[in-house]
Amino acid sequence: MENTDKIMIPDEIIMNQIYFIRGHKVMLDSDLATLYEVETKQLKRQVKRNIDRFPEDFMFELTSEEYHFSRSQNGALKQGSNIKYSPMVFTEQGVAMLSSVLNSKRAIKVNIQIIRIFTRIRNILADNTDIRLEIEKIKNKLDNQDKNMEIVFRYLDELLEKQERPNPPRKQIGFKTDGLNQS
């Protein structure tokens, strides 16, 4: 009997099977079936028997255009293999739900690994977003500093221009006292 306590699937294999379709990170039914060591039709059958557990944000079927586009872009779907039904794709939540409809220890263990990878990807994306926000803050500060420096240089230029031009004689303002002391 196979030891399923420790399933060793390299994370890179799973990461390479996560695609971005319709704005979601998803995995294909055939890839999941391979990881769970079940036939794709068995996986689909279990999902259809429990379809209430798989709302649109957990699982959806690819259109033929999406299927062909995915195949040409990713090389993910085998060229020349005939598909009778549109492939199902599962979001992170859908993958988590699969462990409840596939009653095997392997499915549960593989799902745990997949969910950890989804979480790691989400954290990486969040870290990148944080870094981008920090870079934007720095850029804004530098832009403001550039503007401030421009103002300072403009002011210095004005001062230099004033210094180079002699000041016209000033008119005196006030009362003229012809040297007499008026009391």
User: Helix count?
Assistant: 6
Order of helices and strands: HEEHHEHEHH
CATH topology of one domain: Mlu1-box Binding Protein, DNA-binding Domain
How much helix is in the residues?
Answer: 55-70%
User: Major sheet, described briefly?
Assistant: 4 strands, antiparallel
Strand order of the largest sheet: 1-2-4-3
- Computed over alpha carbons, the radius of gyration is 35 Å
Q: Tell me what the CATH architecture of one domain is.
A: Roll
**What is the tally of beta strands?**
4
Task: Label the structural class.
Answer: alpha+beta
CATH level 1 name of one domain: Alpha Beta
| Coarse morphology | rod-shaped
CATH-defined superfamily of one domain: Ski
Mean pLDDT: 79
Could you characterize the architecture of this molecule?
- InterPro entries: KilA-N_DNA-bd_domain.
- This is ORF6N domain-containing protein.
- It comes from Pedobacter psychroterrae.
- The chain has 183 residues and is an alpha+beta fold.
- The chain has a domain of 120 residues: Roll (Mlu1-box Binding Protein, DNA-binding Domain).
- It has six helices and four strands, in the order αββααβαβαα.
- A four-stranded antiparallel sheet has the order 1-2-4-3.
- A hairpin with a 2-residue loop joins strand 1 and strand 2.
- Helix 2 crosses helix 3.
- The protein starts with 10 loop residues before the first helix and ends in a 19-residue tail after the last helix.
- The relative contact order is 0.11.
- The model has no long low-confidence stretch (mean pLDDT 79).
